[in-house]
Structures are given as structure tokens and as C-alpha cells.
Amino acid sequence: METFILILCILAAVLVSSFISRFIPRISTPLVQIVLGAVMALLPIFPRMRLDPELFMVLFIAPLLYYEAHTINKVELLKGLRSSLSLAIGLAALTMIMVGVILHAAWPMFPLAAAMALGAALGPTDAVAVSSLGESADLTPDEHSILAGESLFNDATGVIGFQFAILATVTGSFSLPQALGEFFVEFVGGIGFGLIMGFVVNWLFESARRLGWETTTTRILLELFLPFLIYMVGQNILHVSGILAVVSTGLLVRFDHTGVGPNTSKANIVSSSVWKVLSFSLNGAVFVLLGMLLPAAMGTSWRDRRVSNWMLMATITLVCLTVIVLRFLWTASVLIFTKDHETGSRRRITSKLLRSAAVMTFGGPKGTITLSLALTIPYMTDDGSAFPMRSELIFVAAGVIIVTLVLANFALPLLAPSQSSEVPAQQVEKSIKVLRGTVRELSSRITDENRLAIQQVIKQYNHRIAKLKSRIGQYSPKDFQDLQVQTMEWEQDYMEERLSRIEEAQDQLEERIKSEDASIEQAPASTQPAAQAEPSTEAETVADRDADAQLIDRRSDRGDDQEELLNLRSQEQAARRILSTISGSLFHLDRGGELRWRAYTARRRLRGLLHSEFHRLKHLTQPIDKDRVFVAGRHLQAEMNHFLIEKLYSELGKGRFKTEDLLNTIINHQMIESSAEGKTEYAGMPAVRDQVEEAKREGYAIELGQIQDMVESGEISRTTARKMRRNVYVMQVDADSAL
Fold it and tell me: Which one of 256, 478, 559, 699 is separated from 58 by 20 to 30 angstroms, measured CA to CA?
């Protein structure tokens, strides 16, 4: 029960730290968690904490390093692998030797082997702290990959070096060939076992997916089980480095990238979410545990009156300076002798190179692994005497941990200010390129049957492109407003020209009707009534009949002309109403307070009103039925809309307006055109609605294909591709849930 309460207290401290960090953003979350852990250790209400190093490695470090290795940018890691290994092996070994030699020379009370054990414990950097550096500092991809690679591989060096230094202190003997041989077996054996397990895991998961056995639950449980299994088999059964085995497996595992489909997408989303929660919890627990261990680790020596506290502080200062100076010189040398990726030549010593070396120096803090190793120092040697300076060595290790973590928290933001709140423009541009390629591919698949559905999906893609462009300052609402204004001006010009043709046709028709009326009035009477009719010749009778037939035809034509005139007057009234609406909209548009624009729109509106009034007085007629005017307006709007679509298409490629804005406007007008024809009530049409969902799925598949093409061509990194794929997976699952 005490252990369970302790676990709950640690998780509660992790949760509280996430809230506290919001109010003190300049203090990193790991430091807040260390302080909370120290407070918990000092208060008597919390259970006391004792660390089992083996349990700590398998329970915390193994899953965290597996997740870090699995999510790391593999391309960047390979680029900096040589530098990472030089830090993980060379610098760790040099730190072990130099700390031991300098500490023994300064205070001979520290035996050389015991001092070297301290140096070995200070060799590994804290992988958990390194992984969270990006939140407080803006590291370059090279810096981050080198630091991450070092934290993945240096544990084996530190652990093996520490074991042999302790063995030399306890037994009084040391064999360099034996040490190198065991280091080689553990290092190479751990990597080899991890690579084999990586291939096995990929084959296992891909086979289960192919056979239809994979479910989200089994996938997540097996994936969570992997790091624990691999570490325990490698460390306890094969006697190789379990940490390196876990790291190698995490680097090689790729089964979550080889499947495409709704089920795989759901499993990937759930897996990513579970690992994020687990990673945050374990990260926080590691630092809370560190805080809980520090008071006890430092208190024994601090309260010991036989040991000068000033000597302890001086020892911490000396060891910190040794570790920091050695790390700075080593990283600077690595950067100097590493060829530049762009020029292919060695780098020159510049302020930028020295700043990068300083960033990587302070970006390698010590952490819980260092303290867990120090706490495993035995109390007794083989001859029965007490281990020399055990408490003091633990005190110094704890002090160096605190100093390096504080320096990482405050020095890194000064050397590399964080810009995490800003969206990388290059990454956004790559996303826009993917979306544009998807729009082009979808556009090429339009047919008469799926036109409405694909237009709706393309419209959504254009909105996404506009949002992305606005995030990097490439999109301005004013650009779209300018297009709207231009569209309405085209509408106004078209309708004015159309109204002019209607009026001209109306005038011509009225003149024709007047001439027909005059000819009808001048026509001779056809025949008299039968009772009063005088006898006539047969020729006269035929002529009268022809005259009557012509008169009837003229009257019929006059009736048709009257109907056509009524239609023209209906079109005229409808056109004037449309023009009035357009003019009103243009007048009220915000054009930055331009007086000339206001005057221009007001002048055109007044001219239209005067022209309309003059024409109404000139052709004073009976009012026309509203339904007839409405029908005429629908026809005119359809004609105008068709004209605008052709006009907008002609603007594509000219560069006057943004392509996304033009496409959005075209799609809107096409949907209006289809609506006028009664074709877009797709909300109530299951067939069209299903086509929209199918078009969405096609778009997501095209997106994934575009992303893969960019990865293979080297345009984007695998880390960027993974983030982009995750967004697509989320939308895929959302679309499937809607179905």
C-alpha cells in the first residue's frame, strides 16, 4: 500500500508541475518537478523513496529511450552519427579519466579508482532532459540530432566504465584488456540483438496486419510491452547492453508506417496518443524521483562535521568546471573536424561555431542515470573496510546534476532563444505544396457524375491552404476582398451591358408594335353582315378572304410581340434590381476609406438610378407580375454566373489574384449555377453525400502519396512527413466516424 501511495504522489506531482509551468514559463518543467520531488522528500507525510537502479532502468529508461529512438529524425541522426558516437564513447571515456585524475590530484583523500567511478557516472547525459530541451531553446537540426544520438548511446559507456572503476576500488585490481573486451561485447552485442529484434517485430506486426489479426488493443499492448521485454532479455539473459538493444530496436521499427487504411490510421493515432501520455508521465516521474533522492543523497555529507562543507562545494565547482570545459573543447573539435554538409569542407572557427559548441555543451545535462549509478556504490570493499568517500561522491554527483540542469535551463535560452511559437515557414510551404498537388489531382478526376462532390472537397482544401498561408504571413484577407470587388465589378459591367441590350430590344419591339397597330387600323373592313351584303364577284370574295387572313396573322403577331415585350420589361426590372443590389454592395465595401472609391461607386449608382427613372417614365406601363420578374431574374443571374465562371477561369495563371482565391470563387459560382438548375441540394441526397465522402477519402490517399513522393525525393524529412501523415490520419478517422 505504501508503494501504491508513493506512485500516486509522484503522478500527482507530475500533474501539478504541468500547471505550475504555465505560470513560470522561464523555469523548465524538469526543474519544477525536481523541486516538487525535493519538497515531497522533506515533508514527513510522504512515504520515503529508495531507488532500485535495475528497476529504474527497466521501468523508466527503457521505454523512454525506445520512444525517443523510434520518433527521432533518422536522416539527421545518420548525418551526425559519427559526432554522436564520438561524444557517447570518446567524451564519456575522457570525462571518466580526467575527472578521476583531477579530483585525485586536488584532494588525494579521493582514491583514483573511486574518483574515476564518479567520472564514469558523470559521462552519460540525461536522455529525458535532452528530449525536452526543444521546449526552452531553439536547437538546429544538427545540434538536436547529435545530442539525441549521444544520449541514446552513451549509457553503455558510462555503466561499463562505472562498473570497472567500482570493481577496481573494491578489489584493488584492474585489467584494461578485460574491460575493453567486455565493453565491446556489451556494446556490439546490444546493438546486434536490437537490430535482430527490429526485423522480427516488423515482420510480426506486418504479418498480423496482412492476416487481419491486428486490432488497436493488441497493437498498443504489444508495442508497450516491447521495450521491457527487449531490455530484460538483452540485459539478464544475453548479458549485453539492454539499453542499446532497446535503442536499436526503436530505430529499426517501422511497422506503423507500412500500412494505409482506416484501421491502421486509428491504431497509429491511438498509439501516438498513448505514447505521448506515457512519455510525459515517465519523464515527469524521473525528475520527481530525482528530486526525492537529492535531499537524502546530499544530506548525509552536508550534516557530517568531519567533512568541510566548503570543501564539498569546492569539489562540486571543480568537477563541474572539468566536465563543462572538457565537453566544450570536445564538441568544438568535433564541429571543426566535421565537414560541412553544404560545402564539403571543414568548418572554420567562427562565432557561430563557438556558439553551437556552447549550446551542445550546456545541452548535455546530467540526470537520474548519474545519480542512480552513484547510489549503487557499495558500502564495503572486499577487505571489509568502508568504501572510501562514498557519501561525498554521491554528494558531488548530486551537486553536478543540479548545476548542469540549472545551466541548461538558463544558459540555453540565451544562446538559442526558443522560436517554437512561430510556425516554420519552410514546413508550411511544403504542406501547401502537398495540398496543391492534391487539388490538381482531384481536379483531373472530375466527371459529370462527381463534379459537385469533388468541387466541395476542393473547396475545403483551398480553405486549408488559405489558413496555412495566413500562418506564415503569405495570405491576406485583402487579396480575397480585392477579388470579390473585381468580381462584382465584372457583374456590374455585364449586367449594365445586358440591360442596355434589353432596352434596345424593347425599343425596337415597341416601334414594331406601333407600326403593326397602325397597319391594322388602316386595313379595309373585311365583309359586311350577311343580311346587308351586296352581291360581289368571285374574285372580290377571294381578295377579301386573303385580306382577312393577313389581318388575323398581323393580330396574332401583335399578340406574340406583346408577350415578348412583357418578357423584356420583366427582364429590365429584374436587371435593374440586380444592378441596384450590386451597386449597394460595392458602395458599402471597405476599401480602406478611399474617397475616390466612394465617389466612383456613388457616381455609378446615381447614374444607374437616373437612367432607370428616365426609362420608367419613357415606358410608362402597367406594373408587371412579381413572379414573372422573379423568373426573369433567375435566368439573368444564371447567365451572369456562367459569364463570371469563364471570366475567372481566364484569370488563372495571370498572377493578378491568388490561385486558391480564384478556385474558391469559381467553385462557389459553379455551385450557385448548379443550384439554379436544381442540382445542389446534396444535403438531402444520399448519393451525392456519399460521393463527397468518397472524394474526401480519395483526397487523403492522394495526400499520403504526395507526402511519400516528397520523402523519397528528399524534399522533406521523415520527421516532417510523420507529422503531416498524422494530420491526414486524424482526418481519415474523422471521415470514417462520420460514415
Answer: 256
Alpha-carbon distance of 392 to 397, in angstroms, equals 9
What CA–CA distance (Å, rounded) separates 715 from 719? 12
347-380 tens-digit pLDDT: 677 788 888 888 888 888 887 778 777 878 887 8
DSSP helix/strand/coil, 137: strand
Helices marked H in 57-111:
62-71, 74-79, 81-85, 92-106
Q: What share of the chain is helix, strand, coil (3-state, %, to 5)?
A: 80, 0, 20
> Taken in order 210, 215, 217, 220, is the CA torsion positive or negative?
positive
Q: Are the C-beta atoms of residues 168 and 113 closer than 8 Å to each other?
A: yes
67-82 burial by CB neighbour count: b if 16+ within 10 A, else e?
Answer: bbbbbbbbebbebbee
At a CB cut-off of 8 Å and minimum separation 6, what does 334 contact?
Answer: 83, 86, 87, 146
423 CB neighbour count, 10 Å cutoff = 14
Residue 282 CB contacts under 8 Å (≥ 6 apart), including other chains: 60, 63, 64, 128
Find, among 33, 30, 28, the residue nearest to 136 by Cα.
28
Q: Which of 482, 450, 480, 447 is nearest to 462 (CA)?
A: 480
C-alpha pair distances (Å), 75 with each of 152, 714, 718: 15, 10, 7
Any idea what the Cα angle at residue 406 is, between residues 403 and 408, rounded to 5°? 105
Query: Which of these, 107, 12, 136, 127, lies nearest to 67 by C-alpha position?
Result: 127
Query: In the structure grid, which three cell numbers stand for residue 566, read together?
Result: 412583357
Mean pLDDT over each residue of the chain, to the nearest integer: 75
All three cell numbers of 678: 436544381
This prediction's pTM: 0.59
Residue 324, pLDDT score: 92
Q: What's the CA gap between 566 and 559, in Å, rounded?
A: 11
**Count, residues in the chain:** 739
Are the C-beta atoms of 594 and 652 separated by less than 8 Å?
no
Question: Per the structure block, which three cell numbers stand in for 62?
Answer: 527503457
Q: Which residues pair with 386 in a beta bridge?
A: 380
**Residue 403: Cβ within 10 Å count:** 19
- Phi first, then psi: give them for residue 84, nearest 5 degrees: -65, -45
Average pLDDT over residues 250-262: 72
- C-beta separation of 149 from 248 below 8 A: no
**Which residue type occupies 485?**
V
pLDDT (average), residues 27-52 = 80
Quote the distance between the C-alpha of residue 87 and its chain's center.
Answer: 32
* Confidence label for 291 from pLDDT (cuts 50, 70 and 90): confident
Please report the DSSP string for 331-400 in residue order. HHHHHHHSBPTTT-SBPP--HHHHHHHHHHHHT----HHHHHHHHT--SB-TTSPBPTTHHHHHHHHHHH
Q: Give the SS3 label for residue 156.
A: helix
Between 504 and 687, name the one with better pLDDT.
504
Contact criterion met (CB below 8 Å) for 360 and 407: no
Using CA atoms, how far apart are residues 185 and 181, in angstroms rounded to an integer? 6
Residue 137 backbone phi and psi in degrees, to 5: -145, 155
- The pLDDT of residue 502 is 82
Four-residue CA torsion sign, 167, 170, 175, 176? positive
The mean per-residue pLDDT over the stretch 73-102 comes to 85
Cβ proximity of 705 and 721 under 8 Å: no
Render pLDDT for 56-68 as a digit per residue (tens, 0 to 9).
Answer: 778 887 888 888 8
Q: How far apart are the first and last CA of the chain?
A: 47
pLDDT band per the 50, 70, 90 thresholds, residue 440? confident
